[in-house]
Amino acid sequence: MNIKIALLTAACALALSACGDGPAPQADPAATPATEAPATAPAQTTVETTDSTAAEMPAQTPAEATTDAAPNAATTGCATEIDSNDAMQYNVKSITVPASCDEFTITLNHVGKMPVAAMGHNVVITTQDDMQGVAADGMAAGLEVGFVKPDDERVIAKTEMIGGGETTSVTFSVSELQGDYKFFCSFPGHSALMNGTFTVE
Ligand code: ZN
Questions:
Q1: Rounded alpha-carbon distances, angstroms, from residue 110 to 35, 121, 137, 162, 165
Q2: What separation in Å is there between the alpha carbon of 100 and the centre of ligand 1?
Q3: Is the pLDDT assigned to residue 60 strictly greater than 60?
Q4: How far, in Å, from the CA of 88 to the mean position of ligand 1?
Q5: Average pLDDT of the segment spanning 67-93
Q6: Rounded to the nearest whole angstrom, what is the distance from the C-alpha of residue 193 to the centroid of ligand 1?
């Protein structure tokens, strides 16, 4: 029996190799990637080299980021529209309200795709000193209230918390405001990256 099986196996092997004349070319491409595999390793080494190069760059990168990522929001009359994304970013670092405005409207777009529970964004405006406390209390307050403590008197204005693809806006009085304030996202952990200066001239 074993011999028969061996023969059958041999026959199959022969048949395969016979048929394999066709597939044989496929075996070569298969071998080629294997040959290229070692080339991948050097490629990874190159990536590491790139990383270490990047590690040497942080001194420059923040400076460039500050320059590039510090556009002032374009205002149309007494309103502005800003974007937020799945990379935990606003597209502006500052908003300036003209002195002539009594009210101001901020429209926030979430141009990402992630749901609000994972990558929610809002815009909260407070004084510079209140930002951290409002963000901390908002975190404790939870998503149900948009990560802003209800009736928090330190909050000058706030939008809803929105997810990817959504838009929201808030209109509020700026007649009592003067100088520099902060705008930020109160979703847990976001305010470190998602914050900017809100200035009333
Ligand atoms: Zn956010």
A1: 46, 7, 23, 7, 5
A2: 30
A3: no
A4: 6
A5: 89
A6: 9
| Region for 147 from its dihedrals, namely left if φ exceeds 0, alpha if ψ lies in -120 to 50, beta otherwise | left
103 closest CA partner among 74, 128, 75: 75
**pLDDT at 111 (0 to 100):** 98
Q: Which helix (H) or strand (E) holds 26?
A: helix 24-56
Q: What is the pLDDT of residue 69?
A: 54
pTM of the predicted structure, to 2 decimals? 0.67
Give Cβ neighbours of residue 92 (< 8 Å, ≥ 6 apart). Answer: 71, 72, 73, 82, 196
Average pLDDT, the chain: 78
Between 111 and 75, residue with greater pLDDT? 111
Contact 201, 174 (CB under 8 A): no
CB atoms within 5 A of ion ligand 1 belong to 121, 185, 187, 190
Q: Which amino acid is it at 15?
A: A
CA of 74 to the centre of ligand 1 (A): 21
> Residue 17: which residues within 8 A CB-CB, separation 6 or more?
none
Centroid of ligand 1 to alpha carbon of 121 (angstroms): 3
